[in-house]
Write a structure and sequence with these properties.
With about 120 residues, the chain is mainly β. The chain is about 0% helix and about 40% strand. It is built from no helices and six strands. The radius of gyration is 13 Å and the shape is globular.
Length: about 120
């Protein structure tokens, strides 16, 4: 597990960096934290929140680390069928930044922002 620092202007966020098979686990079973998932290629992937313990804000980035879309408040999947949702962004993406929605960090991210790490 590798921890990286993601920078956006004056904001710095620590996140677990995941690629290859670890992206399929993401933050499942964790009680808190953020993650940056690197997918094999830039395209539309479907995201779900099975076994999550807290809601996520999803920040989708293209291969140039530019924010192309955000989804706020992705709720964990539970036994309640109303929570059974797959999140399908409209844009292709290469990276997904999963943020703990309880920390409200997504307010700093706008379409077009470029992140560094």
């Amino acid at each position: 597990m590798k921890i990286i620092k993601i920078k956006l202007k004056n904001l710095e966020i620590e996140a677990i960096y995941m690629r290859n098979f670890s992206i399929y686990q993401g933050l499942m079973f964790k009680k808190e934290g953020n993650a940056l998932l690197e997918f094999p290629e830039e395209k539309k992937y479907k995201i779900w929140t099975l076994f999550m313990r807290y809601p996520l804000d999803l920040i989708f980035l293209n291969k140039n680390k530019r924010v192309v879309e955000t989804i706020k408040g992705a709720v964990p999947i539970t036994l309640n069928p109303k929570t059974w949702k797959v999140y399908k962004p409209a844009n292709d993406f290469k990276y997904l930044l999963e943020l703990d929605a309880r920390k409200k960090l997504s307010v700093f991210f706008k379409i077009g922002d470029v992140l560094e790490w």
